[in-house]
Amino acid sequence: MFNIVAALSGLFWDATIHARIPILAQLTHYDHGPLLAGTAWEGLDGEINAISNILWLAKTRRNSLASRVVRLPSDILSRIFFWTMKMTGPLNVASSKKPAWINITHTCQRWRQLALQDVALWKHIELEHVSLSWGTEMVQRSRLVPLSIKTGFSLSPAVRAVFQQSATVARVQTLVIDGQRGGQKAIDTILKKPSASTTLLQSLSISHAFHKVLVLPARIFCNNTPNLRSLSLRGCFISWDSPLFANFTHLDIGARKRGDPVRKPMQLKTNIELSQLLARMPRLQTLALYQILPSVAYEELTPAGRSVVGAVELPSSLVSLRLMGPLNDCVGLALCLPLATSSSIKLAMDLEEFPWNGTPQPTPSIMRHVGGTHRPPRTMMLRCDERSETTQLRLYSDTCDMRGLPESVERECQTSLTLAGQSSFFFKTSDVCVQAPWEGLYLGELQDAYVRVLEDSNHVVEQEIWSKARWVTMFGRAQGVRTLRVEGCACILKLLEAMTPSGTSPSQSFLFPYLTDLTLYCFNRTEEDMSPRSRAHISFHSGVMSEVGEALEACIRARSVRGVHLQSLEVDPVFRPGTTGWEGDNVVTVYKPKRGSVDSVFLPDHADG
Amino acid sequence: MPTIVSVDDSTVPGEGSSRLLLLVSSDNKHIVVEEDIMSRSRFISKQVEGFEATSQRHAILLPFSSFVLNKVIEYCSHYRGYYLLEDDPDAAPPGRSPVREWDQEFLDVDRNMLLRIIKAAHYLEIKSLVGSCARAIADMIRGKTTEEMREILGVENDFTPEEEHSPSSKCTG
User: Which domain of life is it from (chain B) (predicted)?
Assistant: First the structure.
């Protein structure tokens, strides 16, 4: 049936075409004069237009019949367009490839109409990457909805055009200015516009990365910003006296990095200055201060010392406080925050001195002084490089004293302790370990107390310092420890001695009587990974390894006699009796019996030998 | 509006602790599903409210096939009891497709099926599923040229020459 219709349709068109469009021979009589030729020309143009219209009509009808996508309801298509824009990013005229959401407007009639009417596609404008024509076109297509504009510090024609029109500036709801180099002229052009009405502006973010300080006008948009609630200023200077600091609910301010030139002029001098600033923003909900906290000397870093400096009253609406900068400054400020017990605030600190990744939580002692209902950390970690070693140790010896915390808090506060560093550092942590709430662990219902000691240690000169007594002093109270991981070599010998019951009498105490999981690793075995000091004494460690293995076997047997069994044991193969060095396989021997316990370590191989 | 036919109570046990609904697909398949599962659909919820107002229980006739309906029920069952953040496109970060992992697997179907599902979700007013489908389709066409898009979606270029070369079209590509 369809073929017949198609064939008839073909015949019809053949006849129509020949009737409507004369062949060349029929046109020769038009050669008689230019007037007649022109008439023929116009006639053919008319036919071409008519055919184009028919073609367009046919394609449109075909689209509406054939393509399910084209036939989707308008609101679904709008969602598809929007997600396409979100996924492909903003328009960049400098790029040779246009984003898919722009290509959408070229796909078919219906999609173009919908896309051009969809203001959501056009209200986010990144002026830095668009030409003047695109900038003005997007502003027009966004009609009257509030705009979100992002730009850099270059005064491109598009930037000038948009910010010269008061009607456009009045529609800006979110303004982000982010870039490098220069910028003073752009800032003055954009933010000092005298007659601009910016009543819709809710969020302003300016980030400047350049060695020269960018100075913002104290009266941004002539202070005509009644709805500005969120301000983020990084790497630029604004006077703290600015009337801008009034109605914010979100303030994120400071230097971009440690060496930022704006750090000095923006740094708050005293806690009083900070308090006065916060008093002007009673509705503040989130506050982030980067590298501009009042300086605190270590000597002042005690609760007594901080009380002299004075408390900083936070707005009652504040729910999040983020501090970044030198450790002394951050902790110094935290110790001056007298929160009510009922208050709940999320406190985060990015401390320069902490070399590991992630943001360490404030220690329980800090939290005790801060007050409020913070959740104490479940993990404590002491690990540092030489640069920050002294500061950290002194700080922790002050702040890690968790005695005096409510028992409920104490039980929770430390399920894991990691000590890592050179052995010299480890010795210095003795005080911290002694102060640790081991009784809390013992009394609590904690099953996974986890002590990891000495990741990279064993300086041969200090081997004499290692003694059974030192281990007992440090961890004698830590009876609740269930899991122990030690990385080291010579130090492990004395540790195993301290863990080995010396007789069958129950009165003879030994370390970690409830230990179930033990992991013993030798420190880094490749020379490149070793610390210089360890590398200088490889031969010494090679001799000790075998002794460690023998001591471990003796320890496990003696503990078994006392009815204390390990459930899991991981041992570095270099500790196998008879080992003379790091040669051999790198596979760690893991003993995890499905039932029962670990009673011997190297026995099978050893016995065979 | 859907067509509603009366059913007797033996077909739809509705007074028990677990209330059931009878959904009838366009291919006349009867699917019994717990009301709780389909509560994500605003359309179904409105229907149920109507039942309660009239104290009469009905089967709900739906204008799509049982295959599509079962897919929608599978989605609703998976997220049963979950609070789903309804699509807030403005809050979504730019970049990689934010479709949930499970959704991605669930929507790993051919284009026609995906379009059927999105239309069904739209009909049933399941916003989260419409959003996931929209994101999946957007994922399909991102990074494509106009010609590639037309090919993928089976669309003809129906612009007139004037439209293709109009001043406004210069700012559409």
Answer: Eukaryota
